[in-house]
Write a structure and sequence with these properties.
By secondary structure, the protein is of the alpha+beta class. It is 41% helix and 17% strand. It is built from 10 helices and 12 strands. The chain has a 10-stranded antiparallel beta sheet. It has a two-stranded antiparallel sheet with strand order 10-11. Strand 4 and strand 5 form a beta hairpin.
Length: 317
């Protein structure tokens, strides 16, 4: 169509500009331009955008821009107004002496553009509203994740500065107990009104047992039962033992390894493990995950000769 109409933008501009000029001065169609082409500048922009689109549609310079529905959705064009435009195209094609065959092809092409412009039934509008709603939801989700990331970064930075009490256990047959346990003083994780200590991998925790006057070790998955006094754990200190003993190094050493009892599943009984218990105590600091995905930990302020490294924690300086 582009070539047969003249092979340049001038013939196309004459037709399009002429149609809009006829519509603008029409007593019935003209008032509608107050909605979307009120000033000479906006009317000119509408003409140019229409030429750009028809250029690409009819074989000229490729069109780059929104589709027909998106570019006309805010104009609220109905079939009556579109019929009025089509009448002006018929009139303009005659004024330009375009032959009947080409005129018929142009009219047929313009009619095929009616559905996305008029959008009968509002089907395209509903689809666009769904897309906009999804885009809005996606944007809110991105903002939510961004805020969560910022909060996590702030928490990591805070944790990187905060120090916690750590207890290094050793000497047990169950190797999962020979770990660094770090204090959790959150009230929700207290047992018998005392803090608890969780292993770096989170599988086990240490707690104060009021019924036995000992410190015990239990599986984290049984935390609720332990807190309710329905589980005895898997290991216990001697009676009267205090896990965070204060005083001189010699006093702390004397309270360190006091032969804790460990439950032997194969023997189905409690076994006293000589030398099993607290190996060292000290301060530790959490390493932010963003700093190093392969987290590690080091017992700090240790007793003599203890430099055991585990997971999740760094030296507290």
């Amino acid at each position: 169509i582009y070539k047969r109409l003249g092979g340049g933008e001038e013939p196309l501009e004459k037709m399009v500009f002429g149609v809009y000029d006829l519509m603008r001065v029409d007593p019935e169609l003209g008032p509608f331009f107050e909605r979307f082409a009120k000033t000479p500048e906006t009317l000119t922009r509408l003409k140019v955008r229409t030429v750009d689109y028809l250029n690409g549609e009819w074989g000229g310079r490729p069109y780059e821009g929104p589709n027909l529905f998106e570019s006309h959705a805010s104009m609220l064009i109905d079939d009556w107004l579109y019929d009025g435009m089509m009448h002006m195209y018929h009139k303009m094609l005659k004024l330009l002496h375009v032959d009947k065959v080409l005129s018929a092809e142009i009219i047929d092409s313009l009619e095929k553009m009616r559905p996305p412009i008029v959008d009968p039934g509002g089907i395209l509008l509903k689809e666009m509203e769904k897309k906009l709603a999804k885009a809005s939801a996606d944007r809110r989700e991105r903002m939510r994740l961004h805020m969560l990331n910022k909060a996590q970064e702030a928490k990591d930075a805070k944790d990187a500065k905060a120090t916690f009490r750590g207890v290094k256990m050793n000497g047990f047959q169950n190797r999962a107990l020979n770990e660094l346990f770090v204090e959790n003083d959150d009230p929700e994780f207290q047992v018998n009104d005392r803090e608890t200590y969780f292993s770096s991998c989170g599988d086990y925790f240490l707690y104060r047992s009021a019924s036995t006057n000992t410190w015990g070790a239990a599986k984290t998955k049984r935390f609720k039962q332990v807190k309710e006094g329905l589980s005895n754990g898997v290991a216990h200190s001697p009676e009267g033992f205090e896990i965070w003993q204060t005083g001189s190094v010699s006093v702390m050493l004397s309270h360190a390894k006091k032969a804790w009892r460990e439950w032997d599943a194969e023997a189905t009984k409690w076994i006293t493990r000589q030398g099993a218990g607290v190996e060292s105590r000290g301060k530790v600091r959490r390493r932010p995950a963003a700093h190093d995905r392969e987290e590690r930990a080091v017992q700090t302020e240790p007793w003599r000769g203890v430099t055991q490294a585990t997971q999740t924690w760094d030296v507290a300086s």
